[in-house]
Amino acid sequence: MKDIKLHDKNFEIYIPETEIEEIVSSVATAINNSGIENPLFITVLNGAFLFAADIMRKITIPNTEISFIKLASYEGTKSTGTVNELIGLNQDLKNKNIIILEDIIDTGNTLVKLTEMMKNKEISSLKIATLLFKPEAYTKEIPIDFIGKSIPNKFVVGYGLDYDEIGRNLPHIYKLKN
Ligand code: IMP
Ligand code: MG
Fold first, then answer.
1. 106 is catalytic
2. Ligand 1 touching residue 167 (CB < 6 A)
3. What is the pLDDT of residue 178?
4. Which of 3, 8, 92, 106 is catalytic?
5. Which ligand 1 atom is nearest residue 48's CA?
6. pLDDT less than 50: residues of the chain
7. Is the dihedral of CA 87, 72, 30, 53 positive or negative?
8. Which residue, by CA, sits nearest to atom 11 of ligand 1?
9. How is the beta sheet containing 146-150 ordered, strand by strand?
10. 133-175 pLDDT, tens per residue?
């Protein structure tokens, strides 16, 4: 399949749309079978918007809720190490069974920030679900409960993931070409 160019970089296809659908279905099935009741999904914008939209339609748990927060830590193809809160959480999380929805977990800095945001909120439980995970880049101890696919430490775009804000609309996931 065709390579694409975004800004100054070339990308080649890595996870085709059909495989993404299978991955999303497998995460949905795992969540549906986990025994979690009345979940509140918290989607991390911008990257996870397509993942959230697709997985929500496959969740069959009664009284499922969804909300959104916006965080940013990436510049270009690298993590900056600081996580900025662009849209925060303004609702009551007390007694909620929260499932965080991430597009990709890389260093884990964003995850640490998210778990700090959940502290002192008297939540009932916290689980993490991510479409993609880069185990070689992950430096934290927080367990990740639902992983769609583990990938090597390569920069990827498409299906919500961006390279300096573009590429989110691509239906397939692409990786940086060397
Ligand atoms: P972390 O804080 O280093 O774990 O990075 C998490 C966030 O950085 C993700 O939610 C993405 O928004 C972004 N990110 C990490 N890796 C990639 C990538 O390969 N492509 C695009 N965005 C990425
Ligand atoms: Mg993100």
1. yes
2. no
3. 79
4. 106
5. 10
6. none
7. positive
8. 104
9. 78-87, 65-75, 39-45, 97-105, 125-133, 146-150
10. 999 999 999 999 999 999 999 999 999 999 999 999 999 999 9
